[in-house]
Amino acid sequence: MKFISTGIADLWLIEPSVFEDSRGYFFECFNKQSFKEHTGIAIDFVQDNESRSTKGVLRGMHFQNGEHAQAKLVRVVEGEVQDVAVDLRAGSPTFGEHFSVNISAENKKQLFVPRGFAHGFLVLSETAIFSYKCDNYYNKESEGGLLYSCPNMGIDWQLKGTQLILSEKDLILPCFEK
User: Fold this and answer.
1) Residue 148: active-site member
2) What domain count does the chain have?
3) Following DSSP, what letter does each residue of 134-168 receive, concatenated?
4) Which pTM was predicted?
5) What is the CATH classification number for the domain harbouring 73?
6) Choosing from 62, 98, 119, 148, which is the catalytic residue?
């Protein structure tokens, strides 16, 4: 596995080593020992989630607050998404900065999003299956979010306006304040 710094502390882009032959391919999605060795982060994932969405669906920007904050390791099983994380950690030198990357079933890239980040993704392919591991259990009372289009976040979503499909809940989230 290749661990690539994103320029934001603890936010890692991961490129697995893929072994292909006439039968197909194999790759290791996660290895706890290797992850700690390369990132310095000891993590215990407790919940795996998966969603399927169609082109233009934007899910985000979501987070969990307080003791229910979650770190996530995200990947795409089918299709392609634009994946985005925003640093919301108070006192962080990169507070308010975001990182955006296209991840797909084809490139097999993964993004590790630490606790203290808002996270979201936009489906770029006709459909996408998005899978993620979490280090804490979901808690509805602790969920939070930011409006995807806040100018203060400066995210350049690859699809625009009427091409986007959002939940009513995501359309009324507050704007990010630095």
Assistant:
1) no
2) 1
3) ESS---GGGEEE--TT-TTT----SS-GGG-B--H
4) 0.94
5) 2.60.120.10
6) 62
